[in-house]
Structure formats: structure tokens, C-alpha cells
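tool_call predict_complex ligand=zinc ion
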Amino acid sequence: MTQSRDADTSSVATHLQCRSCGDTYDLDTTRFPCASCGGILDPQYDYDAVDIGREAWENRSGSMWTYRELLPIRDEDAVVTMGEGQTPLVDCPGLAEEMGVERLLIKDEGQNPTNTFKDRGQSAAISAANEQGAETVALPSAGNAGQSASAYAARAGMDCHVFLNHQAGDVKKDLVRAHGAELHLVDGKIPHAGAAFNEARDDADWYSVATFQTPFRHEGKKTMGFEIFEQLDWSTPDHVVYPTGGGVGLVGIWKAYEELRRLDWLDDPSPPKMDVAQSEETAPVVRAIETGATEHSPWERPESIAHGVEIPDPGASPWILDIVAESGGSGAAVHDTRAIDAAIDAARKEGVEMCVTSAVALAGAMKLAERGDLSEDDEVVIINTGAGVKSAGQLGRAVC
Ligand SMILES: Cc1ncc(COP(=O)(O)O)c(C=O)c1O
Ligand SMILES: [Zn+2]
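tool_result ok
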């Protein structure tokens, strides 16, 4: 079914489509994922209805809502924003030299309202919840998404339930509570928090803002891609290295690339190679890349200190693996100690503060370089998904 658009909106979103069975849903649907098959719902757009050029985006500033035409919120008054997005792409010549590449850029997502890229996803998901009249939102999380959701829910005047496993860092637990959300602490790992959330949600009238249940988090994260391409004067870098847990941001950045190509807005439309970085202690997607599988098999004993990528069973792996194959990217799994070393390296050589999870991407890029997968004329973008303050204790212990 195709949703007709309001006359006074700039969004050209039309409907949601299931990635697995192709069923379509109204943008107003509030139960996710796909009711027929459990697949991921992906917002669709009428690209021919985009009635601006890319200069209009260049002339706007303020937040990720710069890209509102290609975001799925039709009522602009429903948007819940704190200026998320528009983060710098920081040139890192010292690290580039160490890696032997032409240029290394860090997209510094630590500079978002709650210090991670999760704010883009939650701004989009909670704006959709707001547009649809939801009163209570809920999700399971490794920590950062929960902190972000509780902040945006507070701003929207909604109740929020966050399911974290005990190992989540104190900063995240404390701030979830500070925002007034209800914190449910669960024994075990992130899948246990997910199971507790799903069970509780069955009996409650909660609007889900969980990874790939909501169709809107990868849409919000898509704006990282728009910004990277705009910041590089509408060219594509050779590589984007991404610290991959559920893969929401990787999928989003690739979707941005595809949309810009479709709009013919890229001066250099050659695809960026999308590289998956994971911890050796939890690397289901890298293992699938290495074995040529089209889907991951769940990781038996997830144990990484990089909690954001300690995801043993990422449901979107077929989508992630398609993107890696189509873009010509690859995968690198690194030991946790290499991630810590990479975070310290970024802090000392470039002044850039990275949390341990995002440093998995920097360490992964270093491994790709050692392996010869990056060449001396490559321009490489690393996504610093979260600020160093999120791992202050871990980094402090490493340098004592
Ligand atoms: C700092 C950080 N980086 C990366 C990730 C993984 O994100 P994605 O689901 O987009 O793979 C997370 C998820 O919790 C995170 O907190
Ligand atoms: Zn389906």
C-alpha cells in the first residue's frame, strides 16, 4: 500500500517495505517488524518528488534534519531534535601516515547530544513515535542506544523503558535514570536483555525503538552517509570502516550512498568499499565474510570488552553481507587489546577521543592496511561512533 503524502511536508517518504517478503505497510504502522514474516521494514521514498537540488542541503545547517526530504517524518512539528548530526570529519594525517594511506578521516560522532551516533537513530525513531502518538517507548540495548532513547523520550515527554544487561557501563545506567526512564537490568548478555524486552513488550502497550524492529533507526543513521559525501564535496571515499554490532549504521550509510546515486547527486559515484570491523571475541559477520556465507551463524560465547559490537546474533547480517559484497569491502576482526591501543593512538596522535567500541574500527582499519587491503592512494573514513568518555575507565586502566 502506498501512503499519500501531506501537501505541507517536505519528506518524500511513501511507505514501508519488508526486506524479506516484500509486503508493504503504511508509514503509520506502529507494530514492527513485518507482521507476515518478522523481516526488517525499510522506509521507501518517491525520489522523483524531491524538488530541491543538493545546494539546498549545503545551504542549511543545524542538525541531521537538514536532510528531511529523505527522512520518514511527514509532520515536521513532530520532529524531536537536539541538534544531532552535522558532526566533523576530522583529518588525521598522523594515523594516515602510520597506516600508509593517502588520507584518513574520522567522522566524530562523539560530538552528538548523548555522545554517540545513536542520537541520529533515536531522533528519527522517537520523532516517528511522536508523530504516531505513542506515549511509551521501549528497547533493549548494550547501553548507548538506551541512554540516547531515554534522552529523546524525555524531550518528547514520553515514558521510556530501557533493558540493559548488568555489564553496561555506569555512565549509561546513571544517565538512563537521570533522564527519568525506567531501567530494567538483566543478567547475562545483550541477547538476554533482548529476550526480557520481547517478553515484557508482549504484555505492554509499548512502542518499540529497538534495533531493526523500528524501521527508523537506520534511516536516522543514514544521515551520516549524506554528511560524509557532502563533506567530501559529493565524492565517495575509497573505504568506510565501521564498528559493526547490529550493522544499523553500516546499512544506513550504504542506503545514503544508493539514494544519492539514484538522485544523480554524486560527482564521483564509484561505491565506497564498506568494511566491517568486529572484535575477535565476537565476530559473526567477519566470520561469514571470511567463509563466503550469505548469513552469519550465531557466535557461541560473546566476550568482548567492546560492548557495542558484542552482538552474537545480528539479524540483519544478510543485508550487511550483501552490502560488503556489492561494495567490494571486506572484514577485519581485532583483539580487544588492539582496540584499546588504537583508542590511545588516536588520542595521542590526533587528539581524537574514541570509545573502545569505535576504536575497533580504527584497529580494524590498521589490520586492513597491514593485510594490504588499503593502498597508498586510498581515502579512508572511520566512524568514531562514540566519544572516549564512554570508555573513560577502560582507557584509564590501560595507561596506568
Ligand atoms: C559506540 C557504538 N559503536 C557501534 C555500535 C554498533 O552499532 P550498529 O548497530 O550500527 O552496528 C554500538 C551499538 O551499541 C555502539 O554503542
Ligand atoms: Zn515480511
